[in-house]
Amino acid sequence: MPLDDFRRQIPERVKLDFDALSGCAERYRVSLMAAILRWLHYTGRRAVLVVCAPVTSFGHGQARPP
């Protein structure tokens, strides 16, 4: 993901949405997570990424330890 092109796709002062990030992910053939991390790296805005993983079970139906 060339930074100069990425910045042209999503300028820093534009209101960001997942469609724009998804478009960049497709453009550069990377995951959505990689595109989001790239944006977080260059933005001057205060931003946070929250990742939620589904609770899964293993073994005999017990939840995975933290």
Give the secondary structure arrangement, pairings included.
Elements: H1 3-9, H2 18-28, H3 32-42, E1 57-58, E2 62-63
Antiparallel strand pairs: 1-2
Helix pairs in contact: 2-3
Overview of the molecule:
- With 66 residues, the protein is mainly α.
- It has one domain.
- Helix content is 44%, strand content 6%.
- It is built from three helices and two strands.
- Helix 2 crosses helix 3.
- The longest helix has 11 residues.
- It is globular.
- The mean pLDDT is 80.
What does the average pLDDT come to? 80
Helix content: 40-55%
Rg (C-alpha, Å): 16 Å
Question: What is the string of SSEs from the N terminus onward?
Answer: HHHEE
How many beta-strand runs?
2
Q: How would you classify the helix and strand content by structural class? A: mainly alpha
- For the largest sheet, list the strands in their spatial order: 1-2
Count of domain modules: 1
Assess the beta-strand content as a share of residues.
5-15%
**Major sheet size, sense and barrel closure:** 2 strands, antiparallel
CA-to-CA gap between the ends? Answer: 34 Å
Total number of helices = 3
Which segments are poorly predicted (pLDDT under 50) over 5 or more consecutive residues? none
Tertiary shape: globular
Short recap of the structure:
With 66 residues, the protein is mostly helical. It has one domain. 44% of the residues lie in helices and 6% in strands.
